[in-house]
Amino acid sequence: MFAEKRKILLSLLLLSISVFSGCDNSLLAQKTPGEVARVNGSPITLKQLNAMRDSMLTSQGGEQMLALEAVRQSYGRQLANLIVQELVIQQLGKKNMGVTPEELAAEEALVRADYNQEDFERFLLEESIDLETWREMLLRRVSMNKFLATQIRPQVEITPEEAEHYYIIHQSEFELPERYGFMRFSGAGKDGVGGAAKRYQQIFSVTDVRENYPEVQLHTVRMAKERLAPEFISALEKLKVGQISPVFAYGGEYVVLLLTSREAGTLMNRAEAFPLIENMLLEEKMQGVFSEWLEKTLSKADISVSAHLITKNPADQPVSQP
Questions:
Q1: How far apart (Å, rounded) are the C-alpha atoms in residues 193 and 63?
Q2: Which residues share a beta bridge with 187?
Q3: pLDDT tens sequence across 236-295
């Protein structure tokens, strides 16, 4: 779903240019301690900004040492995300469609279902996020999803003609590659691996092979030819279905392959391709509608930002995906 795969780089770029430029209303005189921005009078705090930035750094695998200007840009990008979310929350509120306590509680229950209480508390501790801040971040995510579903999606229509046109001019995207299906026998002993493969070739019983050759690993594989190691391709190309390869060394162990199927490359038919095409076109059009809404909303918004977060070269500021 688009709500789960949002790609609003254009929108955030527009936001960054509008907000982080040297316009008259870009400098914030703080009314409350820790305030880094205001959006139509609603404050965004340093605590919120740190939580957003920390969550992004965690998802990206940590942070390298950053120069001062890079740190400023990093905070600026996450502040842009927060401002977008704040505008969305305000828009839902104007339409009396804000996320209800019941909706938020239901979403929290879904997240918590993946953890026991102890693991969830450990997760918050490891992320250095208190429960109140986590719930606020959850509210922002749920609000964005609700906004996209109720305000943006209804404005988008995908016609069968559009899907057909896309399929015709992008057929290379729907080519299914040649695939091999095979059994992989591997282990430290050359004789054991070879014996296990021959045993399976005779009786086709995984259970029997595992009982008689416990030191050998068996794996059923079905994979595109282009994703296989050259050694595997070389072995499989010489086999007919049901045949086994000679024992060969690979990755510090011995391996035998038994070919179970060979599927020629084909073109995905329309019935299979159209749902994928509709999703791609839907995402593209929703991005466009959202960008238009955001640009229009920004032109009317009263946004003030801390001078410390305004970059020296706003036009060069990179924008990250939320």
A1: 45
A2: 254
A3: 999 999 999 999 999 999 999 999 999 999 999 899 899 999 999 999 999 899 989 988
